[in-house]
Amino acid sequence: MKRILFSTAFVCIMAMTVSMLLNTTPAETNPSSFKGVFSGYLSSEPSNLDPARGVDVNEASIQAKVFDGLVRYDEKMRLVGNLAESWTVTPDGKELVFKLKQNVFFHNGQAMTSSDVVYSLDRILDPAVGSPRTWVLEKVEGAAERLRGESNSIAGITAIDDYTVSIKLSAPFAPFLSLLSMPACYVLPSGNAKAISDRSFFERPFGTGPFKITERVRDSHIRLVANSAYHGVKPHLARMNMRIIPENMKAEMEFESGNLDMLQLYPANYERFKSDPDFAARITDVPSLNVFYIGFNNQAAPFDDVRVRRALNMLVDREKIIKAVYQGRAVAANGSIPPGISGYSGDSNGLEYNPEEGRRLLKEAGYSKTKPLTFDLYQRSAQSAFEITRLLQGELKKHGVVINLKPMEWSALKDAVSKGEAPAFYMSWFGDYPDGENFLFPVFHSSNWGSGGNRARFKNAEIDSMIEDSVKIQDADRRSEAYSRINRKIAEHAPWIYLWHASESYLTSAKVSNMDFSPMFFCDNALTLSVKE
Amino acid sequence: MLEFTLRRLAATIPVLLGILLISFVVLYLIPGDPAQTVAGPRADAATLARIAEEMGLDQPLHQRFFSYLHRIFKGDLGSSAVSGKPVLDSVIEKLPFTLKLAALAMSFSIVLGILAGIISAITQGRWLDRVCTVFSVAGISIPVFLSGLVFLYVFAVRLKWFPSSGFDADNSLMPFILPAFTLGIRSAAFLARIVRSSMIEVLNQDFIRTARAKGLSPARILFRHGLVNALIPVITVIGLDLSSYLNGSVIVETIFDLPGIGRFAMDAILQRDYPVIQGIVMLGALVFILVNLLVDLLYAWINPKIRDEMLGKLAR
After folding, report:
1. ipTM of the complex
2. A243: closest CA among A482, A39, A403?
3. What is the pTM of this model?
């Protein structure tokens, strides 16, 4: 009997194995005028393909290919019409009127009209949706009432006719067009409102974008095929296979065995590929819209003293760290605004590496060898964070500053910083939209203290009103100059140690050409990309 | 046997309740605001409050626990806070990957482990035993993330014998062989050690000598009398391994790109997706409890003495 038992168990396991063979997948049709298959990957599952709910880079990179917004940034980072053919802004800057393209169709064949636009934008503020992106439309007339559930539609967004949409703002806000390019504002088919509201639509959503999703297996892959009815310049590619590969080393192996057409590089493998002539020519360094910084709690000692904050800025040799950690693939920051968008300027901010002046300021603030400046630096307990903070710790120690590292899990860190418990913290800010305002208002306006983005608890009435005035300027060049002045003015107060703007590096396979490496993650809709067959 | 089964079943209920309570409280104590995770970095206080309310985070702890229990008993594991998809649906979607992996890994582990254990036991002290020992010590000591990457590199990337991921796994077992081997080799090594020592112990007992004296064939002695009597500790190990495989193997699933339960759980933890974490912990606990129950029943069946001990009948 016991032998039977043993062999039964074994047979059961074998039977289980065999019975679990699954069905084959249906064959995909390949549009004849499109050529090539791009094999890419995402570093995590895009859990939310709902534009109103997504907050993450991987989600946006799929959404950008499936959906369209009224406007978008092209591969040269110029704001251009997308679903909107043209638009006008009234002289007071408070009303935008969009003329929509005609003959635009969703992937299921429905025509796209202004009611879809109104529906999609209204959804962001619909309290039942609970969108994390309500702030995108907060400047629209009637936004607050809609969000509080006091009205069933947003007063400021109306369809004038089938192909004209008007958006009224409660106050002039020039960066609004930039916000409209964000994934949150992508247009959904209002005819599918029921499936959208119960969220089943987002298992395999469709929009008007250049690619359609044909297959999706969570945590495994998403397959896309070119939309032959696309309203704009059509994509070159026939198909895209986007796999989910969370492990960098795995992605590297897959790339080297020819299974991937693109690989994101990290400091750990950058040197190796860069020094190999086979690969070096195919590496692209992309300046990305971010700023890395050591934030101070500006309201509490010792960092309520501007001399201490300025001194620490002057004691950090940014170029040295950029060379050591980033192999030079970063630009030293002289403010919060990164190169490539409005408001950036390479001018000096008076906080450059200057150890003599830094030590003098520290002395003036009352610190010495016997009474050294000592503080806790909160950070993520990740290797990438330690690489930076340990270097900073060592560098500053030479100047008599003692840093205790406080590594924490990410959520706990955000919590501690938002509540003002961290005297100093190593963090970064990545842009949500490519306008200089995105690196000023959220991070330094006093209305955004804590989780709103102003983690340094910086408060300055003059800066607040300068920021408020700048967004009223419709002329792009003049607005950019205003941002630049504010950026410089904030640097006088040194609310952070400005560190750098890091680039991202990608390696592509020999088959790939014209890949659009946009500094803004959601701007790449793969229109220009081609892959040799 | 029926009394034993019923008693054993009844004993699982407080265990399950305890696990639910502990997982609930631990999640509550972890720092980081789940509403903030769902809302993203720029959400204002009103949005956060609204999301917190939707997620039931504004209610007192005990109330949240009881409403959670209530839902569980109705068979509703809730929906993901991130994607809105019902937890049970997601689990069912991912189960085939984890089951295939577990079944294959178990097969590798049992075949290799028991075979190596028996060879070691009968060649005790000779070179074949030493070779088996070296391999099993290596198998136990080398961490899965290392052996996984090495196998991947050698067999998938260099030799191209196997696909390197479960990406095209729909119609083939091939993508599961390497990960299952990675996973199975470790417990095979462990199993080999256990089988070896319990076989040696059994083979030195009097009844084996009696069997030999009776003139039974060596194979019959080995399998009919030796192996079966050495099975108890082996079943324990197999049971534990099976439970942990069925709960998903985060590292192997990540390295080999298999969208199974382990990665699903890991993603949920990183995203503070409470309903998913709770659902998976509960199902995972259930799997452990059921497999343990099965193991206990097997013990009792193989060896009635154990059953009587557990029922306290021997004392009577």
Report:
1. 0.71
2. A39
3. 0.81
